[in-house]
Prior knowledge:
Layout: E1 16-20, H1 26-35, E2 39-43, H2 47-56, E3 63-65, H3 69-73, E4 78-81, H4 86-93, H5 99-102, E5 108-111, H6 117-129, E6 133-136, E7 139-140, H7 142-148, E8 151-156, H8 159-169, E9 173-180, H9 184-212, H10 217-224, H11 232-243, H12 252-269, H13 274-291
Parallel strand pairs: 1-2, 1-4, 2-3, 4-5, 5-6, 8-9
Antiparallel strand pairs: 7-8
Amino acid sequence: MPSTNPRNYDATPSRKVAFLGLGVMGYPMAGHLALAGHDVTVYNRTASKSIAWSDEFAAAGAVKHAETPRAAAQGAEIVFCCVGNDDDLRSVVLGADGAFAGMQPGAIFVDHTTASAEVARELYGAARTLGLQFIDAPVSGGQAGAQNGQLTVMCGGDAAAFDAVRPTAMAFSRAFTRIGDSGAGQLAKMVNQICIAGLVQGLSEAVAFGQHAGLDMPLVLDVIGKGAAQSWQMDNRGKTMVEGRFDFGFAVDWMRKDLGLVLDEAHRNGARLPVTALVDQFYADVQQSGGARWDTSSLITRLGVNRASKKA
């Protein structure tokens, strides 16, 4: 991501913020905050990435890196976070070196990790006990959305905290919406992943069917993409599925993690998800065939076409 301002950021007051976790999503998200004029302190488990981020965005203004989540959070009005899973989240939030230990009363923690609704509610309660605020705010839009500052963010938590955070978070968002109380953001992200799982499997079967039938599938996708079958997945992944390219986007490993959260929650709330459970097993097949880091559109490789696909 270039260290120049690629967007016309809305004019918002400069805030002192922290960002924990500089992976493929967090790195550009934190960058957009810096480019929008905020005072940003970053933390990453691998310190060299924090140093590289600080060097890249030094021209944007007040940026620095910290050695612990607690140090990064000290003095911050808002602490953003994007890590891997529930355990990773607890490790940067709780404990003597965790962010909560360094946050001032009234500060807001905004978690962009795709995690369980259970851990969101747990940390919301812990934050309230300490006089802090917690918003669960998983994102949709993938790596491209993070780099372009066009993420869709689904939030759960108190309305006042959401309202306080939203102007700052719009630095990397196209939509930043409160769904409901604590945990509602994570549940909405689960709905999102259920939809995607079914769409990608349906698109895989359609493309494979057309290829077996000898159709010009790029042409077919152009045609049906103007009708009722159109979807983001068709527009952005259909032709690359035809070409057997899976070297971008959201990895199968990550989708299986997310679908595991979905199926666990369904077990708790009684929802029946037969298609989602089946697609999860299809993704397990892709993992076993060496596609753990392929894009989720690699589901098509199970169907007898594009076996020579490219790995991420």
